Structures are given as structure tokens and as C-alpha cells.
């Protein structure tokens, strides 16, 4: 179970980077950038549907929203902007992976 959670967090982290680079691209529609900003604000906001101070349940809504919202947003990114975002995210992650294996 913990192995699955680790894989989920690694893939969500990569997708967050891809969304970040996609939102920085001028070809990405403004509405998509706005929805991505609102998603980020909700995740970091102290106001939640389920309060974060409830053990484990408080983070379920945030993780669920990220796991469903980020791939949904990435579907609306133009293909060339998405390709550039993937390349940029892979470049950044490869620098960290290389440095960790030394």
C-alpha cells in the first residue's frame, strides 16, 4: 500500500511540474491558467471541505482533487505547449536524479 502511495506522489509531483511549465507557456489559454491557480489556492488554503486537522481524512480531499484535477487540466493544454512542458519538467527532474545518484 505504501509503495502505491509513493508512486502516486511521485507521478503527481511530476504532473504538477508539467502543469507549472504549461501555465508559463503563452499558448496556454488564460482560463486554464486561472483554473490551475484556483486549484492551487484551494489545496494550500486553510479553508477546506474536510478540515486538515482531522487525521488523514483532512488530506483526502486535497489529494483527490490533485489526482483528478491535474490530469483533467492537462487535457486542455495545446499539444505543442504540453510537449514543451513535458520536456522542461523532464529536464529539471533529470538534473535532480543525476545529482542524487552521485
Class derived from helix and strand content: mainly alpha
The number of distinct β-strands equals 0
Number of helices: 4
The number of domains is 1
Shape: globular
Q: What gap, in angstroms, lies between the N and C termini?
A: 29 Å
Description:
There is one protein chain. This protein has 102 residues and is mainly α. The chain has one domain. 76% of the residues lie in helices and 0% in strands. Helix 2 runs antiparallel to helix 3.
Provide keyphrases for this structure.
102 residues
Summarize the structure.
The protein is mainly alpha-helical.
Task: Give the helix/strand layout.
Elements: H1 2-24, H2 30-44, H3 57-74, H4 79-100
Helix pairs in contact: 1-3, 1-4, 2-3
